[in-house]
């Protein structure tokens, strides 16, 4: 009380209030008197905790912020790191939302917020777009029903979502009253409300021990219910849940007065209290602040900000009824959990957002193993080609195809195939440690490049040599042999003899050396190139169906590991440009030398076809795999694998299959006879310059013993025909017909020669009488060595040929007044030349004489 002028007593009714608002605060400030304290049992706004605005306010009703620590504890229990707040725009809910955001920031939980005023439809659409899964609702019960109805229509309920509502709603709050006209039925609302949680400060003690009033919480509730009318429902009675708080607020006031009276000096009584007596007011404030007793609402105590410190009750809606899940004590931060919660999924609480699982994009296992099978087959073919190339190295067709160069090509093809095993790693089921990834990047690229250099370089060297020989050397000189199987080349002005294998080896060494130099420069210049490649990830998010079961809401996060350098585009341009120049130049050389055939590179035409295949496939595959489909591991690996396998299979097939067919169809003896006959014919020409020549005839052979043996070793016609193709057989028959025609012409010429000889004999006999008067005529003799034979050789392109040797021998008898008689013998020799020998007519260089018989024969 306060004694004013005239002895009027002024009473202040603000010591016990239901609610506190700004009007009450302003009225206290306008009236220039202060109250020692005020106790509220119905105010829960967090704004009332501000001691600057409400310095003497205490509340037995817990503040709305008191539930935030409980919510945070549940978030941590269920391992939720993302929470969304949906609130109405009232200040009480805004303060609670801000406090919850601050707590989440401190504990590492991401808290987002959406607000609405009146209609929550737009806010619900936003929640769906943001993929909100754990939603805390802060609004009054009317807005709560609107939110629940919209949640049903927007499918924001069920196994993916968890809702938290305020706990002081009535137990049947979700049933829509008829006057609200919601677009949802009671069943729909109940379906959407299933398994939601509520947090509420304990307003009725469940302890069986007696409180300060001598009653337990249940006894107080029973007495209160008995005072209600029989037809009223306590759950729907306004203020019924907060009644224990009001009862304990009265006890707090009584205990505060009792405490103050006991602490006052003996000469001062509580009844002497006036509003300007600051000493009694301070004692009253301290007594209320230190209040601690067991009330019907639980333990009653206040914080420094005047807020009630109470336990929080957690409930869950299960089949239309609230079930207590546990309690959380803010003072001790202990959670008492009963473990009765239920979820839509048997795997526990839903995730706080869409589950993002890392999925490393690797080559599919079936693709990798399929390529591995073909790669093993390719390695087997390469090994077989290597064994074949070395086993039959004595055969002419192998010798004249540069077997050393073929071995290099086989090695390169094997390296290219082996690189496929590394290209497909990591694959499904085949994981590699992260530290091995840079080594893998360097190894698979280096092996492929070195293998390509060996394989393509060996073929490039062959066509290069053929092209250079055709451009700079005489065709006759390029086709002749020296030292059996080594060609006679002259690439310099001084006509120095150089082996083609030496030239090929030099060219391949230069190509490989250039490649090694480029790789060394890459490692030297770029700190992130090749050897020190770091893992670079390209991340793309793909929406996919749940991978395990129907309860999972999963999105895959594909992670693609790429071999990436700091200057990736620059190095790709340099390497591709260099390789493309080699491929294009190889195409040009193969095209230019397509019609050229050399004995010591007898497979140059087939090698040219292999170069066409490799160049075209490589020119297409290189840019596609490095620039277009680099981020698609399956397509990239399949593209590279098909290109490598096709190039190696076709190259090995073109180079070795014809040789294999020839060796299988032609016996070694035939091959040796062909080589021996070629050498014998050439050597015989040189022999004719130094020794007399004897007549060689197909019917009557008069030769030396080695010549007889050589001719006896000649293969028969059936053996030759078995080693011929259809085109070769046609050429053979054509040459055979020409030879028969030539034989007939020779017989006619011989007949005419005999007739001429008879006429000459008669004329000579008639003129014998004149011979004595004229005198002896000097005999003219011509040695064989002055008139070597004329040899006509016709050879096709596929090992078979015919040589017709015409020997002209003059009689040793002295003749007078006439030219020497002529004996013409024709030797028909069927020979099999080498694979790529160029057909030509060969004649002895010293055949420079003429005679009447020569004129007749020609």
From TrEMBL:
Single biological process term from Gene Ontology: gamma-aminobutyric acid signaling pathway
Entry keyword Transcription: no
Pfam families referenced in this protein's UniProt entry, alphabetically: 7tm_3, ANF_receptor
Molecular-function annotations in GO: G protein-coupled GABA receptor activity
Primary location group: membrane
Subcellular location: Membrane
Keyword Transferase: no
Entry membrane topology: Multi-pass membrane protein
InterPro entries in the record: ANF_lig-bd_rcpt (IPR001828), GPCR3_GABA-B (IPR002455), GPCR_3_C (IPR017978), Peripla_BP_I (IPR028082)
Domain G-protein coupled receptors family 3 profile, residue spans: 441-667
Protein name: 7 transmembrane receptor
UniProt source species: Dictyocaulus viviparus
Lineage: Eukaryota, Metazoa, Ecdysozoa, Nematoda, Chromadorea
């Amino acid at each position: 009380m306060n004694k004013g002028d005239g002895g009027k007593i002024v009473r202040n009714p603000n010591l016990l209030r239901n609610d506190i608002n700004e009007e009450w605060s302003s009225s206290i400030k306008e009236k220039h008197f202060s109250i020692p304290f005020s106790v509220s049992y119905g105010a829960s706004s967090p704004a009332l905790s501000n001691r600057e605005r409400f310095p003497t306010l205490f509340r037995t009703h817990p503040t709305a912020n008191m539930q935030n620590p409980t919510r945070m504890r549940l978030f941590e229990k269920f391992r939720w790191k993302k929470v969304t707040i949906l609130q109405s725009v009232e200040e009480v809910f805004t303060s609670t939302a801000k406090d919850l955001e601050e707590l989440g920031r401190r504990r590492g939980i991401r808290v987002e917020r959406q607000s609405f005023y009146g209609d929550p439809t737009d806010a619900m659409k936003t929640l769906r777009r943001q993929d909100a899964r754990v939603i805390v609702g802060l609004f009054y019960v009317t807005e709560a029903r609107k939110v629940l109805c919209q949640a049903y229509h927007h499918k924001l309920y069920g196994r993916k979502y968890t809702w938290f509502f305020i706990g002081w709603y009535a137990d049947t709050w979700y049933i829509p009253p008829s006057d609200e006209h919601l677009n949802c039925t009671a069943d729909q609302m109940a379906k959407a409300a299933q398994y939601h949680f509520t947090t509420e400060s304990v307003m009725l003690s469940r302890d069986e021990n007696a409180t300060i009033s001598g009653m337990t919480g249940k006894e107080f509730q029973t007495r209160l219910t008995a005072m209600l009318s029989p037809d009223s429902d306590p759950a729907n009675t306004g203020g019924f849940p907060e009644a224990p708080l009001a009862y304990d607020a009265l006890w707090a006031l009584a205990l505060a007065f009792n405490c103050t009276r006991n602490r006052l000096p003996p000469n001062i009584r509580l009844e002497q209290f006036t509003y300007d007596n600051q000493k009694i007011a301070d004692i009253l404030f301290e007594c209320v602040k230190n209040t601690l007793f067991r009330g019907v609402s639980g333990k009653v105590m206040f914080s420094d900000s005047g807020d009630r410190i109470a336990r929080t009750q957690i409930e869950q809606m299960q089949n239309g009824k609230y079930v207590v899940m546990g309690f959380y004590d803010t003072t001790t931060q202990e959670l008492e959990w009963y473990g009765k919660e239920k979820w839509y999924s048997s795997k526990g609480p839903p995730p706080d957002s869409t589950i993002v699982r890392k999925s490393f994009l690797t080559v599919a296992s079936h693709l990798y193993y399929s390529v591995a099978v073909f790669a093993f087959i390719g390695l087997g073919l390469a090994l077989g080609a290597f064994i074949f190339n070395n086993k039959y190295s004595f055969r002419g067709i192998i010798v004249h195809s540069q077997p050393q160069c073929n071995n290099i090509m086989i090695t390169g093809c094997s390296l290219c195939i082996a690189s496929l095993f590394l290209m497909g790693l990591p694959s499904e089921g085949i994981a590699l440690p992260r530290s091995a990834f840079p080594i893998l990047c360097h190894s698979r690229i280096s092996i492929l490049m070195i293998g390509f250099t060996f394989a393509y370089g060996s073929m490039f060297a062959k066509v290069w040599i053929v092209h250079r020989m055709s451009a700079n050397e005489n065709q006759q000189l390029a086709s002749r042999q020296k030292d059996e199987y080594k060609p006679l080349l002259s690439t310099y002005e001084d006509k120095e003899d150089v082996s083609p294998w030496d030239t090929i080896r030099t060219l391949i060494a230069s190509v490989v050396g250039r490649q090694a130099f480029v790789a060394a420069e890459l490692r030297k210049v770029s700190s992130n190139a090749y050897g020190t490649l770091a893992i670079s990830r390209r991340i793309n998010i793909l929406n996919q169906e749940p991978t395990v079961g129907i309860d999972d809401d999963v999105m895959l996060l594909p992670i693609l590991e790429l071999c990436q350098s700091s200057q990736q585009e620059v190095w790709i341009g340099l390497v591709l440009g260099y390789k493309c120049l080699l491929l294009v130049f190889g195409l040009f050389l193969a095209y230019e030398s397509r019609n050229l055939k050399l004995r010591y590179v007898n497979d140059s035409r087939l090698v040219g076809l292999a170069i066409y295949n490799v160049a075209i496939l490589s020119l297409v595959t290189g840019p596609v795999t490095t620039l277009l489909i680099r981020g698609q591991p399956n397509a990239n690996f399949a593209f590279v694998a098909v290109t490598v396998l096709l190039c190696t299979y076709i190259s090995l097939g073109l180079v070795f299959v014809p040789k294999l067919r020839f060796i299988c169809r032609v016996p070694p003896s035939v091959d040796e006879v062909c080589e021996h006959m070629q050498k014998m014919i050439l050597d015989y020409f040189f022999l004719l310059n130094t020794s007399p020549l004897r007549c060689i005839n197909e019917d009557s052979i008069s030769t030396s013993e080695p010549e007889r043996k050589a001719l006896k070793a000649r293969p028969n016609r059936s053996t030759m025909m078995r080693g011929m193709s259809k085109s070769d057989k046609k050429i053979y028959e054509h040459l055979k017909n020409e030879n028969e025609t030539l034989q007939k012409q020779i017989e006619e010429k011989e007949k005419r020669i005999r007739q001429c000889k008879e006429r000459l004999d008669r004329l000579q006999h008639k003129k014998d009488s004149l011979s004595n008067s004229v005198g002896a005529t000097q005999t003219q003799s011509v040695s064989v060595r002055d008139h070597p034979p004329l040899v006509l050789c016709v050879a096709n392109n596929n090992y078979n040929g015919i040589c017709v040797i015409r020997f002209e021998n003059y009689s040793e008898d002295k003749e007078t007044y006439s030219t020497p008689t002529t004996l013409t013998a024709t030797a028909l020799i069927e020979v099999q030349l080498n694979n790529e020998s160029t057909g030509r007519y060969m004649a002895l260089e010293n055949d420079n004489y003429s005679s009447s018989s020569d004129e007749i024969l020609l």
